[in-house]
Amino acid sequence: MHKIYISIGSNLGNKEQNIVNAIAEIGCQIGLVKKVSSFYNSEPWGFESKNEFVNAVILVLCDTPPLLLLQKTQAIEKKLGREPKTNIGYSDRIIDIDILLYDKVVVDLPNLQIPHPLMLQRNFVMEPLREIASDLAIFSGK
Predict the structure, then answer these.
(1) What backbone phi and psi angles, to 5 degrees, belong to 59?
(2) What CATH number corresponds to the domain at position 55?
(3) How far apart are CA 114 and CA 118, in angstroms?
(4) Regarding beta strands 2-10 and 107-109, do their DSSP bridges make them parallel or antiparallel, or are they unpaired?
(5) pLDDT digit string, tens, across residues 31-83
(6) How far apart are the C-alpha atoms of 67 and 71, rounded to whole Å?
(7) What is the pTM for the complete model shown?
(8) What is the spatial distance between Cα 4 and Cα 66, in angstroms, rounded to a whole number?
């Protein structure tokens, strides 16, 4: 089983329920949700909006390879009402699911980078990640 850390965010509709729904779908379609962080409120990152985000990070145990995992998370986003992503930049969204870490695997493809290339710049990712995985090397400087 692989240890996968996933970030989930929402800034439209019932944000907390959107995250709960995403966690349930991940549990049904991807693998065992082993840990769930607290929910964190944050300002939009990379764009302006009057809608604050709610974010969480989860630990999932599964056997799904990285590219299939990406396909599954994107299918869950679509099922939960996510509008197709555009090349214009960031925008409001009902749900956003990002793969942060996949064991110690490094993936560098046009459509998937693991570790997530922007996670260290995002407090709304790092705070909930630290809550559930303070023993990760990124927190100890190793």
Answers:
(1) -105, 125
(2) 3.30.70.560
(3) 10
(4) unpaired
(5) 999 999 999 999 887 767 888 999 999 999 999 999 999 999 999 999 998 77
(6) 6
(7) 0.92
(8) 10
Residue range 4-18: mean pLDDT, rounded: 96
Task: State both tokens at 95.
Answer: 């749900």
Name the domain count of the chain.
1
| Unique residue bearing structure tokens 């965010």 | 9
Q: What is the 3-state secondary structure of the chain? A: CEEEEEEEEECCCCHHHHHHHHHHHHHHHCCEEEEECCCEEECCCCCCCCCCEEEEEEEEEECCCHHHHHHHHHHHHHHCCCCCCCCCCCCCCCCEEEEEEECCCCEEECCEEECCCCHHHCHHHHHHHHHHHCCCHHHHCC
What range does the domain containing 134 cover? 2-140
Rg (CA), the chain: 14
